[in-house]
Amino acid sequence: MRSDRRNDYGLETLLSLSGYVFYLESGGHWVKFEAHQVAPTKYIPHGISYSLTLHDRNNVRIVGYDNAHRCIPKLKKYRAKIVTWDHVHKRNKVSPYEFDSADQLVEDFWKTVNSFI
């Protein structure tokens, strides 16, 4: 993870959004932010536990960025083993997410949200 000043503000922003639910103007969709600082571990080396989700009007999760559990994607032969728990849920598909910074996480989340609504 890079350690420039921008990331400090990004982390502050992400943490300040924790617990907020935002209702979007399109079709009853809503997003929820959860983020907390934790002690860094092998699985959460950046020290941020997070869950950013997009839901439809029926409360079904459409998109989720989180690190609450291990991501087990279909492995290809000779592929590197994934150690961190950062991943993305898009409908019923789960894929690894390369965490770079809190800034980038929020930006990537909103880009994905905009592609689904």
What does this structure look like?
By secondary structure, this protein is of the alpha+beta class. It has helices spanning about 5-15, 100-115, and strands spanning about 20-25, 30-35, 50-55, 60-65, 85-90, 95. Helices cover about 25% and strands about 30% of the residues. A hairpin with a 5-residue loop joins strand 3 and strand 4. Helix 1 (about 5-15) crosses helix 2. Residues about 1-5 have low confidence and may be disordered.
Secondary structure layout plus pairing:
Layout: H1 5-17, E1 21-23, E2 30-37, E3 48-55, E4 61-66, E5 87-90, E6 93-96, H2 102-116
Antiparallel strand pairs: 1-2, 2-3, 3-4, 4-5, 5-6
Sum this structure up briefly.
The protein is α+β, with helices and mostly antiparallel strands. Helices cover 24% and strands 28% of the residues.
List keywords for this structure.
alpha+beta, 6 strands, single chain
Arithmetic mean of pLDDT: 87
Distance between the termini: 30 Å
Tally the structural domains. 1
Beta strands, count: 6
Strand residue percentage: 25-35%
| Overall geometric form | globular
* SSE string, helices as H and strands as E: HEEEEEEH
Strand order of the largest sheet: 1-2-3-4-5-6
